[in-house]
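F.,

This is the one I mentioned.
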């Protein structure tokens, strides 16, 4: 792994949590944060719990963010939350185009790129998620699908690309317990890295996500183009999440 890219381990809580459970989880993360060494730690909480994350994580090395953002700046968009609101609130991060949003909410790659641009314009750091389905992979189309997903993001240009993070999350590995092998993940990360290099943004961080656990983290993160992890299920268990961060930090 390149020494010039700061490693990042980010939890995606998805639609999980409660005030009581989060207090325990966040408290344990704060107590154990030193185990992450120089690796950055972050959590993306559901909107109602951002206030709790802000309160508990203020003045700690752990940053926090949201799991989605509106593409609109303001207006009659009931239920939406703008980038300016998230920035006003002190969020650092926002996930854009998680595969569950693409699949369940019909988010197109153009919309995802527009959300990333809106987030950046408000001072947030977007984490743009890409990844192929099992049928894409079985058809030999993984790179083609990911290339299409990346295209509108790459078109944002080098300056923008240098301020966001890409997360490669094969859909078939999310929540399934079936992780990409380190070689499979590295191959796609190298493909994404080459595209970023062609657009003048070779130092943009690329996270791997999909059934990451402490047991498979070291092998994944020894790959040269894997700069950290986007962690779903395992981010809800403090010890497991910190063990992943410790593995990345090695
Ligand atoms: P998982 O989810 O770690 O539970 O597979 C990853 C994600 O969806 O970000």
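My design for it:
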């Amino acid at each position: 792994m390149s020494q010039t890219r700061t490693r990042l381990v980010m939890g995606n809580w998805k639609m999980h949590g409660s005030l009581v459970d989060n207090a325990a989880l966040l408290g344990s993360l704060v107590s154990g944060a030193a185990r992450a060494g120089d690796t950055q730690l972050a959590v993306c909480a559901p909107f109602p719990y951002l206030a709790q994350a802000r309160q508990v994580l203020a003045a700690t090395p752990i940053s926090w963010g949201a799991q989605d953002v509106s593409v609109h700046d303001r207006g009659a968009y009931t239920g939406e939350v703008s980038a300016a609101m998230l920035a006003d609130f002190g969020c650092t991060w926002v996930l854009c185009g998680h595969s569950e949003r693409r699949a369940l909410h019909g988010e197109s790659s153009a919309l995802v790129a527009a959300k990333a641009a809106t987030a950046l314009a408000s001072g947030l750091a977007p984490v743009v998620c890409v990844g192929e389905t099992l049928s894409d992979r079985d058809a030999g189309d993984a790179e083609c699908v990911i290339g299409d997903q990346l295209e509108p993001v790459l078109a944002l240009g080098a300056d923008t690309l240098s301020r966001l993070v890409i997360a490669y999350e094969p859909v078939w590995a999310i929540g399934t317990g079936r992780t990409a092998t380190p070689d499979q993940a590295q191959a796609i990360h190298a493909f994404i890295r080459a595209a970023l290099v062609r657009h003048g943004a070779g130092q943009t961080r690329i996270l791997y996500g999909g059934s990451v656990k402490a047991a498979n983290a070291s092998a994944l993160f020894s790959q040269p183009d894997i700069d950290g992890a986007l962690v779903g299920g395992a981010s809800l268990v403090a010890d497991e999440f910190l063990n992943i961060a410790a593995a990345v930090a090695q």
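The beta strands are 8-12, 40-44, 62-66, 93-96, 125-130, 165-168, 205-209, 228-231.

Talk soon.
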